[in-house]
Amino acid sequence: MKTLTKSNLAKCVTVAAGLGLVLGSTGTAQADPSGQPVYRTLAGVGSDTTQGVMNALANDITVGGQKVIASYNALGSATVATKAAAACQSVARPNGSGAGRTALVNQLNLGNGCLDFARSSSLNLAAVTPGLTYVPFAVDGVTYAVSSGSEVALDLSTADLHSIYSCDPGYVGSGPNWDIKPLLPQAGSGTRAFWLTVVGITESDISANKYPCVTDTKGGKKIEEHDGRVLDTKSLVPFSIAQYIAQSSSTIADIRGSAQLGNINGVPSVLLNTSAAATRDVYNVIPTSKVGTSPWSDVFVGSGSQICQRANVIKQYGFGTNANCGDTSRITG
C-alpha cells in the first residue's frame, strides 16, 4: 500500500483575511421557518450545504416590509406545510440538491404553488419541464475530511483522490476489510455529485459497484453531508469548506466531530480560493418563467437582488461572494 504521510495541520486551518471571510458567530441558524407570516410567497427546499445561509437570508430579506422566503431544511419531519392550501400541508421533505430539484419540478407540474425554488450546490442543466434557471449567489470550496489520528494524509493530489475513489489497491488495500475507506454522502446530494467530478468517477460507476471500496452508508445508515462524526481513522469524506467554517464558529450546528480538512494539490483548505482544485458555485433554482416576475426577480435575479446585496450574510456562513451573483444564463436544456 502506498504510504500517505501527514502534513502540518496548521496548513489546514489557515484563513486568508484578504478573502473577506467572516468567522464571527451570529448563533446557530434557525431550522424551518417560524414567525410571521407562517406561509411565505417563496417556499424552497433542497441542498443541505446552503440551507443555513438561506435560512439566514430568509430571516433578513423582506419585500414590502414582509418576509417572503421560506427555506425548509433537508432533514426534519417527513413532510412540511409550505402554503395554506390543503395540497401544500404535507409536501414530502426532500434531502439534497437533486431531490430538491425533483420536488420543485413535481410541484410545478401539479400546478398547486406549493414550492417556488430549490437550493442546489451542484449544476444540472439536463432538460426538464417546466424549464428551470440556476441562479448563482455564492462560492463554496469542497475538499476531503479525515478524523483526528487518521491514516489518510492531510495533503493529497487530485490524482491521489482518483486512485483512492477508484479503489486502487496501492492506496486502499483490498477488500473486504479495506485499509482506506472512501465515503460519499447520500444519493441526491449536490456535494456528492460535485465530488464525483473532482475524483473522476461517475454515479453510474457507483450504481454498478465498479468501485466496491466506496460506500455511502455507515452503520447501516445513509451518510449525510458535512457530518464529520461518520469518520474513523481509515476513512475520508467530501466536506464543504463553507460548512466547516460555519460549524467551527457555531453559526450552524457543529457536527464535525473530530474531522479536520485535508488539502488538495497543496492548496490550504479553509480558503475559498477560486483557483483551487475544487470550487463551485451554489445556486437557487427558480422556474425560468418567473425570472422577470416579482418577488422572484426582487429576491434572486441580478446583482442588485436582495440576496446579492447581502454579502455580509453570505460571508458569515463561510461562503465567498460570487462575481456572477444573480446571473440567469444557466437554463435547463
Characterization of the model:
- The protein has 333 residues and is of the alpha/beta class.
- The protein folds into 2 domains: 9-13 and 139-264, D-Maltodextrin-Binding Protein, domain 2 (3-Layer(aba) Sandwich), CATH 3.40.190; 42-137 and 281-321, Periplasmic binding protein-like II (D-Maltodextrin-Binding Protein, domain 2), CATH 3.40.190.
- The chain has 9 helices and 17 strands.
- It has helices at 51-60, 97-110, 158-165, 169-172, 190-199, 203-207, 241-248, 296-299, 311-316; strands at 42-46, 62-63, 66-67, 69-71, 79-80, 91-92, 117-120, 132-146, 155-156, 181-182, 217-218, 221-222, 235-240, 260-261, 263-264, 279-287, 320-321.
- Strands 1, 4, 7, 8, 10, 13, 14, 16 and 17 form a 9-stranded mixed β-sheet that branches. A two-stranded antiparallel ribbon has the order 2-3.
- Strand 11 and strand 12 form a beta hairpin.
- The longest helix has 14 residues, at 97-110.
- The radius of gyration is 20 Å and the shape is globular.
- Residues 3-29 have low confidence and may be disordered.
